[in-house]
Design a protein that fits this description.
The complex is a heterodimer. Helices cover 13% and strands 37% of the residues of chain A. Chain A is built from six helices and 25 strands. In chain A, strand 7 and strand 8 form a beta hairpin. The longest helix of chain A is centred in the middle third of the chain and has 14 residues. Chain A is elongated, with a radius of gyration of 30 Å. Chain A starts with 6 loop residues before the first strand and ends with a strand. Helix content of chain B is 8%, strand content 39%. In chain B, the strands form four sheets. Chain B has a seven-stranded mixed β-sheet with strand order 8-4-3-2-1-17-18. A four-stranded antiparallel β-sheet of chain B has the order 9-10-11-12, with helices on one face. Chain B has a four-stranded antiparallel β-sheet with strand order 13-14-15-16, with no helix packed on it. The chains are: A mainly beta, B mainly beta. Chains A and B meet through strand 25 of A and helix 1 and helix 2 of B.
């Protein structure tokens, strides 16, 4: 955003002894925020920290700032005062939003620059309240005599206020103070004054399948069918990721608001129930159609044969032979038909509820997941045409080679259960 | 059941205190060749080089296995070299990962060289589906019988045709033995385990090394041995099969890989 603020003021000052006319040009050059509790924000591409030395500058620079609610913002500013006779001192003050003002300070000239020192606002931010200021506007004023003030310019930048102090970054969890995490955490929960309200408002942002990175780019769940992204940082950097990343993103937005619970990260797998076809180790997320089964194996009667380039698929699974087929079913984040054949899945647990951020679906009980989310169970194994009794290549006979990977499946949801394991994130 | 008064007071380190060394857990020396594994984006990069030559001259291979770098506790990569194969437990994070195929046996001569054009992340699917012929019953059993996994730690070693996999979870240690045909599970040994441990084999015995340096010999049960304590978090174990010796060197000793491993050991050995 380019914003050039240039204030030109023509002042006529009438002295008591003699009258003089002066032309003054006042230019607000820069504004810098600080404060004991100010959070250092990370770039979304994890290349470093966002500049915290300048939060607004007349060259168009703006940088966001983040604080816990209840903390006190300090602001410094520089003004250029151009005239034939620069005054020795200048009085400067600022008026921010919602009564957050910066008291008058007497400043002295260094050349034609006057520096308003880092000064605490006259009141702290409201305590225990999430806020998102898309434009934290401060109207700066100056005075030659400390009595009569004139506009000096306006600074604007984004300010995030978290409900409580953010939980510290976890060096080994991947939880970091990425800009996007603050953006979601505070924009979605703007106005929340309790943990419950904050959680509900943030979760609502995940339910519309349009979670945006701070720069406005929608982030997806398996936009790439075999996305390799499994960390919070990679989801934000590439705007696409596996279930791991979405569970982490949701939990991260709560941690940014100072909320965290142990045992909040659940890994779900099939429970390896034994069948006459081997143990069940995978599952198919809705929707899959089950066609005519070949009954190569009675307990898991459906068979698909993976194409050699199965893992090169971008948007749809490649099978050389298929008795079960993927359909559009449960929508994922920014993806109407995300990947849906898995060995495991990750969700968040908050206050004993199960938040599946990948799909924006909330489950009140663990058992709801099985019946709400999946079409069937499956397993993979190596076989050949002889092994499954199917002429996959259509050459009129059953070949003992080459080997290929097959998916065995059943639509009987009672054939297995989910096996959960829980970690702390 | 006799309760063993065995308390592995493993060195507890906060989540931010994990080792920052280049190589995970250990370096193996055999026939004057060293094997070391670096983790890049979860995926293992195997270095194979002559111990007397600059480490930079080692050939690097990308392996379809690795370990995650996200947990409340540090869990280094569990791997071993035996019979021209790399054995490993794939502990990466990927929705295609199947616990039953997480134990990998990978022929060394099938590995691809690692170059700048290899994207380790693209090997996550290979790590999920390839080389898992020995069903990892220990993992399936452990996860089936435990819900809370923050305190999961494990390592594996090979000895002849056998594979030993030791798993500690929620203050119990279980030793699993693959005898070439099936898995045998030991009793559960109560112990306090709050951080990783490592296994090594010496003269047909399996040893457990805690992260504070205290070691045990495993003879149907862990038996504590006289030990020097030190911080294994900041160390790498060097298993020298040529000299039947175990040494430890500083984990940050590999800043200058123009040195040979022999020089690095000489300059940085801990004990």
């Amino acid at each position: 955003m380019t914003r050039l603020l240039f204030t030109s003021i023509f002042l006529v000052i009438v002295g008591t002894v003699s009258a003089q006319n002066f032309n003054y040009t006042v230019n607000l050059k820069s504004v810098t925020f600080s404060g004991d509790d100010m959070v250092e924000l990370r770039q979304d591409d994890n290349t470093g920290f966002i500049d915290s030395e300048i939060h607004w500058a007349d060259d168009g620079t703006t940088n966001p700032a983040a604080f816990p609610s209840g903390s006190t913002l300090k602001s410094a500013a520089t003004l250029q005062f151009v005239c034939a006779n620069t005054p020795a001192e200048l009085f400067i003050r600022g008026f921010g939003p919602e009564g957050i003002d910066f008291p008058v300070q007497t400043t002295v000239a260094v050349g034609d620059i006057f520096t308003y020192p880092a000064t605490a606002a006259d009141q702290p931010f409201e305590d225990n309240k999430v806020r998102y200021f898309e434009n934290f506007t401060i109207n700066w004023e100056f005075s030659l005599d400390g009595t009569t003030f004139y506009p000096a310019g306006t600074s604007e930048n984004i300010v995030y206020l978290t409900l409580q102090a953010p939980k510290p970054e976890g060096g080994f969890s991947g939880y970091k103070y990425y800009l996007t995490v603050f953006d979601i955490a505070c924009k979605a929960a703007d106005g929340a004054t309790t943990d419950d309200a904050m959680i509900d408002l943030i979760w609502a942002d995940f339910t519309d399948h349009n979670v945006l990175r701070a720069d406005g780019v929608p982030m997806g769940y398996y936009i790439e069918l075999f996305s390799p992204n499994v960390t919070l940082g990679s989801l934000i950097k590439y705007a696409d990721g596996e279930c791991y990343t979405w569970a982490q993103l949701f939990l991260a937005t709560l941690k940014i608001n100072g909320f965290s619970q142990p045992n909040n990260y659940m890994n779900i797998t099939a429970d390896y129930s034994s069948t006459g076809c081997g143990s069940i180790s995978r599952f198919l997320v809705k929707d899959w159609t089950f066609g005519t089964p070949s009954y190569d194996c009675a307990d898991m009667p459906y068979v698909n044969v993976y194409a050699v380039d199965y893992y090169d698929a971008d948007t749809a699974y490649f099978y050389d032979y298929a008795e079960v087929n993927d359909l559009i079913g449960v929508m994922g984040q920014t993806a109407p038909n995300p990947a849906s054949s898995f060995s495991n899945h990750q969700i968040a647990i908050v206050n004993d509820k199960y938040y599946d951020a990948s799909y924006g679906v909330l489950y009140e009980t663990f058992d709801e997941i099985k019946y709400g989310a999946i079409s069937g169970w499956s397993r993979t194994e190596t076989s050949d045409e002889v092994g499954i009794g199917i002429d996959v290549n259509g050459d009129g006979d059953l070949d003992a080679s080459p080997d290929f990977t097959i998916l065995r499946a059943t639509s009987d949801l009672e054939a297995a259960d989910f096996d959960p394991s829980i970690e702390t994130w | 059941m006799k309760k063993f008064g065995l308390i592995l007071c493993l060195f507890f380190v906060l989540s931010t205190g994990f080792a920052q060394g280049k190589f995970d857990r250990k370096i193996i020396i055999a026939d004057s060749t060293f094997y070391a594994i670096e983790i890049v984006d979860q995926i293992g990069i195997l270095w194979v080089g002559n111990i007397a030559e600059p480490m930079d001259s080692a050939v690097q291979y990308i392996i379809p296995a690795g370990t995650k770098r996200r947990a409340i506790n540090y869990q280094p990569f569990a791997w071993d070299i035996n019979n021209n194969s790399l054995f490993a437990i794939n502990f990466t994070e990927n929705a295609q990962n199947d616990r039953s195929t997480s134990l990998k046996q990978i022929a060394l001569n099938n590995l691809e060289k690692y170059t700048s054009i290899n994207n380790p992340a693209q090997y996550l699917n290979k790590a999920a589906i390839e080389n898992g012929t020995i069903e990892n019953i220990p993992f399936i059993d452990t996860y089936k019988n435990n819900l809370y996994m923050d305190d999961l730690f494990f390592d594996m070693v090979t000895m002849g045709d056998s594979i030993y996999q030791f798993i500690a979870i929620n203050n119990n240690l279980v030793a699993w033995l693959w005898d070439g045909k099936s898995w045998n599970k030991s009793a559960s040994f109560p112990m306090e385990v709050k951080s990783f441990f490592s296994l090594y084999v010496m003269e047909n015995d399996v040893y457990i090394m805690e992260s504070n340096g205290v070691r045990y010999i495993y003879r149907n049960q862990p038996l504590v041995m006289a030990s020097k304590t030190f911080d294994m978090y900041n160390s790498v174990m060097v298993i020298n099969r040529d000299s039947n010796a175990i040494q430890f060197i500083k984990a940050d000793a590999f800043v200058n890989t123009k040195l040979s491993l022999t020089q690095v050991i000489t300059q940085n050995k801990i004990n």
